[in-house]
Task: structure prediction
Amino acid sequence: MPRPARPLISLVVPVLNECTAIDRFIGAVDAALRDLPVRCEIIFVDDGSSDETWSVIRRAAGSDDRLRCLRLARNHGKEAALTAGLDHARGDAVIPMDVDLQDPPALVPEMIERWRDGFDVVNARRADRSGDGWVKRSTARLFYATFNILSPTVKLIPDVGDFRLLDRRVVDTLRSIRERNRFMKGIFAWVGFAMTTVDYQRPARRDGASKWSTLRLVGLAMDGIFGFSPVPLRIMLLVGLIMTLLAFAYGAWLVARTLIFGIDVAGYASLMTALLFLGGMQIAAIALVGEYVGRILTETQARPIYIVSETVGLPAAEAGDR
Ligand code: UDP
Ligand code: MG
Result:
């Protein structure tokens, strides 16, 4: 697939309460792309910030026509904000990036190079995550391992986040996927295409705090697994079947023992243990089914993935949600 001599590169940047990071990000992009034969557009998606972020973006867009910016009506979450950005990107290649410089713009030239080599997707892998804490690194490792065991078709490359270069063909394919439970790393992997990976060292956040609480990360992990794997249901079915068989065998043994040795009323402890264990298992199984049913509910409600409240640098016809 031939690449244009002077391609348009879209950087899609979701931001939530990042007023101090915007100008620094634009500066870093300028420094990284200055000598490259590319044109660039930056799509900031303000994901319902409650600080000065939107006014900082508007001010920056006033003097920089590379900026095309959307403000979402509320905090829709990073996955929805990314979707909004991808919907409005016009680039020959599109790169989702964090604004906090943890996805270093200095890596972009190498990603473009690989894209010119013919790859449609260039993943950026965090070879060194010492910028993230120990807990985050080990829970991330556990998540990638669990996801890849449970998901029969879609495999995630460990330590590849949303930072990756996507060819226009890939973006068009991604845009046709409108599911409401959006786990973007899974959706990126699901579409496939010719892929390669470049490594980078993930720096620590420059300032501010991560926008992901532990609870939110657990929610994202659950969206990922339940959105891409029916295997938990099968495991539950298997566990249920095994327990039924064991219970049947134990019951038969109890009947035989009673017939041979007479009635035996002792056994409160074992009875209670079995009762509580089975009760817990049943509630867990129902809740597991509920996770899937709840996702069916949001899909059938078919609400828009995001709502746009304001734009700058976008023609009126292009504004609005899809
Ligand atoms: N972000 C967002 N909406 C959210 C949470 C985060 O747009 O609900 C943005 C955030 O402003 C940043 C990027 O997503 O540009 C990554 O967030 P963060 O740096 O907090 O994540 P971490 O690096 O800790 O995984
Ligand atoms: Mg970050």
Summary: The longest helix spans residues 268-301. The longest strand covers residues 8-15. Residues 14-16, 18, 47, 75, 77-78, 81, 98-100, 102, 205, 210-212 surround uridine-5'-diphosphate (ligand 1) (CB under 6 Å). Residues 231-301 form one domain.
